[in-house]
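pls ignore typos typing on phone
zinc ion + seq
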Amino acid sequence: MTNLNLELVQKAITHAKNSKFYKDKFAGIEAGDIKSKEDFEKLPFTDKEDLRSAYPLGLNATSEEKVVRIHSSSGTTGTPVIIPYTRKDVEDWAKMFRRCYETAGITAHDRIHITPGYGLWTAGIGFQLGAELLGAMTIPIGPGFTDKQIKMMIDMKSTVLCATSSYALLLAEEIEKRGVKDKIHLRRGVIGSERWGEKMRNRIANELGVSLFDIYGLTEIYGPGIGINCEQQSAMHMWDDYFYYEIIEPKTGKVLPDGEVGELVITTYLKEGAPLIRYRTHDLTRSIKGECPCGLKFPRIDAIIGRSDDMVKVRGAIIYPSRVDELLAKIDGVSSEYQIMIDHLNGKDILTLFFETALTDEPRKELEKTVETEFKKDIGIRTVIKAVALGELERSEKKTKRVFDNRY
Ligand code: ZN
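k done
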């Protein structure tokens, strides 16, 4: 686990209170009160909903002439969140991003093909500034225009692809379809940290012929580039000289020991424009113990496995969709559509798992038994299993909701 730097945290709190937002939120809290990790862990969390109330510039903790740029996190509903950046914030972000490229073995000799979008959100421009600081040649193409995309990639001999996992997969498929794989010079892929499975990862890596690196970040905390995995494994090194992070139990807010899955919470040490104290990312991960064989001293977290809003605890077992995805993917006859209902009946939590299958009658009953056994073996609790016909579970227009917790 990363060490809390009390001096930096006190400075961050003092500075944060220059903003209207923290002046109100931390009324009665003084930086000098925080003398230990225990004191720090009593501070209230900051959540995205809170930040919306600061719209448009209530988060700004510095004088306005120091602000050189704003970014905005995509609000699916209602008011967006505006994050102001000073020159130093922009430079710090670029330095972290350069470190990401270096960790992925990318150098000034590379040609970096940047497909994430440029604009109000932090994606493209973060990849861009880090690459320029590294001294690599960038191809700032942005998303879309697949024909031009592939032509540029071939003609410019791009060696690094920056993309979301879904866009990387689309490009990989197009390259295969067009039979131009031998004209592609890619050797590395830097992929934004959405949740993505091993299968997809292997397909992208094989079809593009690249090693893949997961980059982590969120607009509220600079943007992408605050952590990345190294050559060794899927865990990501976090640049904890710029921020402090904790893993908490999402329901109680209690800080969890290394190795336990929970929600990532970040406190910025050095951010000038919009410092954030104990910001809830809602990303689920866990701390990885010990030092990495690669030799980097920065601490590590596991790949993001989902959103804390989807995580539930039932009779002591932690359940989140990617864990159930993996479990069900191993069982023949189970389709990818499923739903989990949790109810509290007669003083007991009951978990019911519905899944779709093409099977009927006796084979369907057999399959239910198999799923029940596997669930008990893997996740450790008894469940009620209900198989239904294909197409029977309700689809939602937006993101598929898998877990319905009816206990609260
Ligand atoms: Zn490492």
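The chain has a mean pLDDT of 92. The radius of gyration is 23 Å. more later
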